[in-house]
Specification:
heterodimer, A: 450 residues, mainly alpha, extended, B: 875 residues, five-stranded antiparallel sheet, 19% strand, TATA box-binding protein-associated factor RNA polymerase I subunit C isoform X1 (chain B), RNA polymerase I core promoter sequence-specific DNA binding (chain B), TAF1C_C (chain B), TAF1C_beta-prop (chain B)
Chain lengths: 450, 875
């Protein structure tokens, strides 16, 4: 914080002479600082009329966009094109990007614009200031894709793919990879459409052969297009998903596994829960051994203990013969119910009630104690308050019964939640409540002797 | 909880912020998010048509928000402005002019070198010295009193041996006796004793250096602080206005601080009509706290509304009992920062790092006269089942910032979806910390760096947990992070990778954000974002369950308070300025309510300004405006205008804030005493006397005069020159009267020359009067023989700043061998004390007000006009 004022007070040194006077450097950069400074500008280098009008025009466009006045924005935009003739080369260079951003937005929302207008605009913009060619092509293709014009989008991407300008920089490379990947995705769409058609055809049909041949071709192209991008660290869910689907379809299970394993476990990638979920689903489809599934979900459990797959994880652990896994199964259930978004998850409560009882019956009191110790100071008010007893009963009686059992087991019969639910008189649930009472009496960890 | 089954593609790069070689894949287009990839098949051609994005326009009822409550009785001081702090100079030697804090780089003898290499110590720069010397004059008590106290014992001053052989020891006690009634509030013109003069000569060099350097440092520090505050005032991060829902969905309470120091917490009951029009029920109840309220947060936890307040150093949490009504403050219970089951925002501390307590205790109830909510000592008896913990729990401690070194002390904390995990944020990033885990560990949720493609100089200004708004629709794991450029949405299950990034483009710091429930089922959730300058934006966040959050439609800007200026009647410039200042006061609070079951969803928006005003705006959702229907422009209804005028009337009745700088007053008792026997006829002396007795600034109207005497070299109004006459009237603050006169009769030009004549008569009266005043002044028994008549004092010539700065402190720059001569000369000259009074008007600060005639100045002594910000206005 103190940096910027120091920057401001600090004597100017030689090397800063050419830089703009809004301090950036190491300190915080405040875009409104310039405005404050301009309020006192009485002399010195004045902005030229040209710069003044263009910057005024820009702010008018932005204002109109924020007020959804597309027509007005379009009119101003018409005048704003003059910035392309700015004598300031810096401004001239960034101008195409601004024009594209604002212009595409206007054309996207303007009630009178159509795909042709957009196409014309995009094609013009691609060639003004070559630096944006790739970005604009990509966005243009996305636009076309969403208007159902797959062919046009594909052509666009193909054109962009082969485009080169100057030395190949790393950012250019990433963009080209991205364009290729989108092209691959597009081909995947076409492929999956064909696949659907194929599934409707009879295998003995003549057409079947040609169609399947077609699909093969596509797959080969796509794999080249997709696999380059997904090596780069990032979140590439749609690409990975479609790539794996195609690999699987053609029986390349090892390739698919490798892609997914790499996507999930490469350390350079962000810890994306979906990567693990995809891998798990793949292994499940592959009918992998339980141990393998458990090991994948164990990692997902570390990242997202609240995921709905955790209940499946619990089931797997419960079925396992390993004692350690049984213990982990309890931990997983407690972990799921820690989260605010899962408090009303009836399956989780059902599992917990059942499994708690089972664990206590199997005299693993220590496991329960271990889990409960870190939660006993906040679960009672988080899950088992009087208010919740009333509202749970009102909203979902089965949930209330399950929770009552857990509350009784963990907190004893004196617990408010349990007392409140067990007092309730309900025809259908009478038996259930009776069972709950019995279980609590027998297994509650608070007074195990009784 | 569902996790989005397919996240939008994004590149993941690690590195510092401002990495330029990374392509920004997240093209900053609002329509980008409308283009989520079709899930499986290109059937998207039908359902991905962009019509989804075209709906959703909040249409305001009026062009701007309206005041909801009458203005508070306390005057409001808008503080310093950039114009007052910045000085721009030396531009001709620069290719790039550079604004400098209160300092000019123009040193005397301007050469290119001295301008581009101003390596001088800041304090010694001439213009700053000018200001400093002015400060020494105006606030002598502050500047010299501590030093004087230190030197209360006799002290010896060396120097000037040749002249003052006899006395180099001055008793400060005697000195103070002499000064009694004068200094430190003394009038510079009053009189000087020999002792004082000797002291001034002997002590001058010492005082001028030590005091000036010390004071200069402090003053500079203060100015820098003010400047930083002006650019970014983080105190009100999060917002100090809260809407506490009542028992019925239409009733609720606004909780906000008001009063001059924002130290009173007001509770105003408000009912929303079915149309969304709010109606204040009765007057607000209030409690007074011991410090300014910085943040007010409300949550409903398990059916119980909780209210949390953050002050500069304290936090408090109240539980209003259900039957609470405005005015019935007794049953308030105050806790310290209770971390109840997961749903109350912990009150983020500034610095030291956040310490939301773990299960906290119910403290003793401070009651309505609650002073600042103090941390209660050890709790006595646990009520209502809260577990007891007698101390604050430290959750996180790290003197360093999270990602890279940035010396900002700002820290922030909020909840996450896990009740025992909190986020801890600073300017560089946000971390998730397990309160039960070992200290120091945690997982970074947001990194100011290439991961979020942050720009150079980008910093976190606000972090907010969005899951509190009900877990039904949106993921309860979303966090909002605002920087000065962009807004990020992050899922705590996928740290570091923003799910959504949007350049908000707000022209001030976005410190307030509110996520609202969807106005109707199926519609996306509005996210309100407000800048410190009062600008408002609403974004729509769609995506629930298994789809990732995305922007639905382009963001929209909502009217800000300054847009309401047109609703108020046109005023004379001074009042107009005041009104404008009030309307453009920084925004410090934002709250919104969506009354249920309206045909078209209505959003009631409340804004709190730093002046303590609550404004209200009603917006209607146009879910699907036809493609050709232009956005209808709202206009002011007569009701709105009427309520505005009413508010304005109340505002103008509030006395304006006393100026920060007050003219030195002097002891007038003695003068009054000698004034008594004189039976001065006329209103003028009477007015002067009352003004003196009350110790307030003498205004021309106290003298019963039209304050027209030589205001400014205004052109002589010709008989028909209506405009200049009107301007002239406005200058005198009599625009309304002029208008009345103008309207009431077509008196025509006949009367105008008369008025003019009267004016000249009056001003001549005043000049003769001032002469008489001087005489009466002189007639008072002089306490010291050296006393001179100010009448005879020659006006110091207006000197250029460079010259003048060497005059005061007078000895600076004079060769030491000549100082003695000078000193002798000065001692002989009784004007020593008086001269700086004239010089104390720095010529660099000439403003229209200070152009008042020096003659009048002499007459009124230093009962001068408050100077400072006002002269800027209007003219």
């Amino acid at each position: 914080m103190s940096d910027f004022s120091e920057e401001l007070i600090r004597p100017t040194t030689e090397d800063e002479q050419g830089e703009p006077h809004v301090p950036s450097g190491t300190g915080i950069c405040l875009p409104w600082l310039q405005k404050h400074i301009e309020t006192i500008a009485t002399g010195g280098k004045q902005e030229k009329d040209f710069a003044q009008t263009t910057s005024a025009c820009l702010s008018l466009i932005q204002e109109a966009l924020l007020k959804h006045q597309w027509q007005r924005a379009a009119e101003y935009m018409h005048s704003y094109f003059q910035i392309l003739e700015d004598s300031d080369s810096n401004k001239r260079q960034i101008a195409p990007e601004i024009i594209w951003r604002l212009g595409s937005e206007i054309l996207y929302y303007h009630p009178k614009s159509n795909v042709e207008t957009f196409n014309t605009f995009a094609d013009r913009m691609k060639n003004i200031g070559v630096m944006n060619y790739l970005k604009i092509s990509l966005q243009h293709a996305l636009y076309l894709l969403h208007h159902g014009m797959l062919e046009d989008a594909n052509r666009n991407l193909s054109q962009a793919e082969t485009w080169r300008y100057g030395e190949k920089s790393s950012s250019q490379e990433v963009l080209i990879n991205l364009i290729q990947a989108y092209k691959g995705l597009l081909q995947y769409y076409i492929w999956s459409k064909k696949k659907m058609e194929l599934s409707q055809l009879d295998e003995d049909d003549y057409a079947y052969n040609t169609a399947s041949q077609n699909m093969l071709n596509h797959s080969w192209k796509t794999s080249i297009n997709l696999c380059a991008l997904i090596q780069i660290p990032g979140v590439w869910d749609p690409f990975v998903k479609s790539y794996v689907e195609m690999l699987e379809f053609y029986g390349d299970q090892d390739g698919a596994r490798e892609v997914l394993t790499n996507y999930a476990y490469d350390e350079k990638f962000p810890s994306n829960p979906n990567a693990h979920i995809y891998l798990y689903n793949f292994l499940k489809r592959e009918k992998a051994p339980r141990e393998k599934l458990i090991s994948v979900l164990k990692i997902l459990y570390q990242i997202v203990p609240s995921h709905k797959l955790m209940l499946e994880f619990h089931r797997l652990l419960r079925k396992s013969e390993n004692e350690e896994h049984h213990k982990l199964g309890l931990e997983v259930l407690f972990g799921v119910l820690d989260f605010a978004g899962c408090t009303k998850n009836i399956t989780a409560w059902k599992y917990l009630a059942k499994y708690l009882r089972q664990t206590l019956m199997g005299s693993h009191l220590a496991w329960v104690q271990e889990e409960w110790n870190s939660r006993k100071n906040w679960w009672p008010s988080f899950h088992f308050s009087y208010f919740l007893a009333k509202s749970d009963w009102k909203e979902d009686k089965t949930l209330a019964c399950e929770k009552a059992l857990v509350a009784g087991l963990l907190l004893g019969r004196g617990c408010r939640y349990f007392r409140n639910i067990s007092k309730q008189d309900h025809q259908v649930l009478k038996k259930k409540i009776k069972q709950v009472k019995k279980s609590v009496k027998k297994y509650s960890i608070v007074n195990p002797g009784l | 909880m569902d996790f989005p089954s397919s996240l939008p593609p994004s590149l993941f790069t690690t590195g510092p912020l401002g990495l330029s070689d990374v392509p920004d894949v997240s093209f900053m287009c609002s329509w980008r998010d409308a283009l989520t990839l079709p899930e499986s098949l290109p059937q998207g051609s039908e359902n991905a048509a962009p019509h989804v994005a075209k709906g959703l326009l909040w249409e305001p009822d009026t062009p701007g928000p309206l005041p909801l409550l009458p203005p508070g009785p306390d005057p409001w001081d808008p503080g310093v402005t950039a114009q007052e702090l910045l000085f721009r100079g030396g531009y001709q030697f620069r290719r790039q002019p550079r604004a400098v804090l209160d300092v000019t780089e123009q040193v005397s003898g301007p050469t290119v070198d001295s301008a581009t290499w101003p390596g001088l110590c800041l304090v010694t720069w001439p213009p700053f010295l000018l200001q400093l010397s002015r400060f020494l004059w105006d606030h002598g008590d502050i500047a010299f009193a501590p030093l004087g106290k230190l030197m209360l014992e006799n002290f010896k001053l060396e120097g000037a041996r040749s002249r003052s052989k006899k006395k180099t020891v001055v008793s400060v006690k005697r000195l103070l006796q002499d000064l009694g009634g004068h200094q430190p509030w003394g009038c510079p013109w009053a009189y000087l004793s020999q002792r004082q003069r000797r002291f001034s000569i002997l002590g001058g060099p010492i005082l001028s250096t030590s005091v000036a350097s010390l004071l200069g440092e402090l003053l500079h520090e203060e100015l820098a602080l003010r400047w930083e505050q002006l650019l970014l005032d983080e105190a009100f991060t999060g917002g100090a206005l809260a809407w506490v829902p009542g028992r019925t969905p239409r009733a609720g309470q606004l909780v906000y601080p008001a009063g001059g120091a924002l130290d009173r917490l007001y509770f105003q009951k408000v009912i929303l009509t079915p149309g969304g029009e709010p109606r204040a029920l009765g007057g607000p109840g209030h409690i007074r706290l011991r410090g300014p309220v910085r943040q007010v947060v409300t949550r409903t936890v398990q059916g119980e509304a909780l209210l949390a307040v953050r002050s500069d150093y304290h936090c408090a949490l109240w539980k209003p009992p259900p039957a609470w009504r405005a005015g019935h403050l007794q049953p308030f219970r105050s806790h310290l920062s209770v971390d109840s089951p997961g749903r109350v925002t912990p009150l983020p501390h500034k610095n030291p790092p956040p310490q939301p307590t773990a299960p906290a205790e119910p403290g003793p109830c401070p009651g309505p006269q609650a002073r600042s909510p103090q941390p209660p000592p050890v709790s006595r008896s646990p009520h209502h089942g809260w577990p007891v913990s007698p101390r604050l729990q430290q959750i996180y401690k790290d003197p360093e910032t999270l990602v890279f070194r940035d010396p900002c002390p700002w820290r922030w904390a909020d909840f996450t979806a896990h009740p025992r995990v909190l986020t801890v944020g600073d300017r560089t990033g946000v971390k998730m910390v397990d309160t039960q885990g070992p200290p120091g560990c945690g997982l970074l949720l947001f990194r100011g760096g290439a991961e979020a493609s942050c720009q150079k100089g980008e910093r976190v200004l606000l972090t907010q947990y969005l899951g509190d708004c009900g877990p039904e629709c949106l993921h309860p794991t979303l966090h909002l992070i605002c920087t000065q450029f962009s807004l990020y949405l992050l899922d705590e299950r996928l740290p570091l990778v923003p799910l959504l990034k949007w350049d908000h483009g707000l022209p001030s710091a976005p410190l307030l954000a509110r996520l609202l429930p969807p106005p109707r089922t199926g519609l996306p959730r509005p996210l309100l974002l407000a800048g410190q300058g009062g600008e408002l934006q609403v974004l729509h966040i769609a995506g629930e369950g298994a789809s990732a959050p995305r922007l639905a439609g382009p963001p929209q800007s909502l009217p800000s308070r300054s847009d309401s200026l047109s609703a108020f009647p046109l005023l004379e410039p001074k009042s107009q300025w005041r009104l404008r200042e009030r309307l453009t006061a920084p925004a410090i609070g934002l709250a919104a309510a969506i009354p249920p079951a309206a045909a078209t969803p209505v959003l009631s928006l409340f804004q709190l300004s730093a002046a303590g005003d609550v404004f209200h705006q009603r917006l209607r959702l146009q879910a699907d405006p036809g493609p050709d229907s232009p956005a209808p422009t709202a206009s002011w209804t007569p009701q709105a205008s009427a309520s505005c005028s009413q508010w304005l009337k109340a505002l103008l009745e509030v006395p304006p804030a006393p100026p920060v700088w007050a003219a030195p007053t002097f002891s007038h008792r003695r003068l009054l005493g000698c004034f008594e026997p004189q039976k001065a006829e006329g209103k003028a002396p009477e007015g002067l006397r009352t003004a003196m007795a009350k110790g307030r600034v003498l205004q021309p109207r106290d003298l019963g005069l039209l304050p027209t005497e030589e205001r400014a070299p205004a052109p002589e109004p010709g008989p028909e020159d209506e405009l200049s006459e009107r301007l002239e009237a406005a200058w005198e603050g009599r625009a309304a009267a002029w208008w009345e006169r103008r309207r009431g009769s077509s008196l025509g030009p006949g009367k105008q020359p008369k008025r003019h004549k009267r004016r000249t008569q009056l001003s001549s009266t005043f000049s003769s009067l001032s002469g008489r005043l001087d005489l009466s002044d002189a007639a008072s028994p002089p306490p010291s023989p050296e006393r001179t008549l100010p009448e005879a004092r020659p006006q110091p010539p207006v000197t250029p700043p460079s010259q003048e700065s060497t005059q005061e402190p007078w000895a600076r720059g004079v060769p030491s061998e000549r100082q003695q001569t000078l000193r002798d000369y000065m001692a002989g000259l009784p004007l020593r004390g008086a001269a700086p009074g004239g010089a104390s008007v720095p010529s660099s600060q000439t403003s229209s007000v200070r152009a008042a005639p020096s003659r009048q100045r002499a007459a009124v002594h230093s009962g001068s006009q408050p100077h400072g910000k006002k002269p800027r206005m209007g003219f």
